[in-house]
């Protein structure tokens, strides 16, 4: 039923909030994508366990886990390789000039990374919003309006700016643990 589906979605969103706050308090990085998938799956498993029907597809889960593991491996290898390449290129350069260049570059790259992160995470939350409206207003005129909003570029901009600002202003514990730990 619609109530059960909305309950599962709410579980996924609450899981994001709880895990993000715990990780932020402890200074640990977290993935809202992992939290969302875990929360939605956990909510679905509870409904199954309580006898309300449904199923968790094995093939989609294998794809998700493959993406998580693959992105970790590829990210680590690319990060390691690019770092070694930059060290090799800058090995004989003036340390003062390279430090100045990279200090300024970190500010620019951090701003760009936070903005792109906001666009990417914004898409997930916009998708959840569209999903909720589509469930609530099945066969109603609003469903067409929700479908029209989905995928338009301008809806991502305010979400990306909010997430960018939050990352820029907050998460000092995470930045300190990653930067110094």
Write the layout of secondary structure elements.
Blueprint lengths: L1 H25 L5 H18 L8 H33 L4 H42 L4 H9 L6 H14 L2 H9 L1
Helix pairs in contact: 1-2, 1-4, 4-6
Description:
The chain has helices at 2-26, 32-49, 58-90, 95-136, 141-149, 156-169, 172-180. By secondary structure, the chain is mostly helical. Helix 4 (95-136) crosses helix 6. It is elongated, with a radius of gyration of 21 Å. The mean pLDDT is 77.
Features:
single chain, 181 residues, mainly alpha, 7 helices, elongated
User: Which oligomerization state do the chains in this entry correspond to?
Assistant: single chain
Termini gap: 47 Å
Outline: elongated
Order of helices and strands: HHHHHHH
- Derived from helix and strand composition plus strand pairing, the structural class reads mainly alpha
Q: How much helix is in the residues?
A: over 70%
Backbone CA Rg: 21 Å
Q: What's the count of strands?
A: 0
Average pLDDT works out at 77
User: How much of the polypeptide forms β-strand, as a percent range?
Assistant: under 5%
- Alpha plus pi helix count: 7
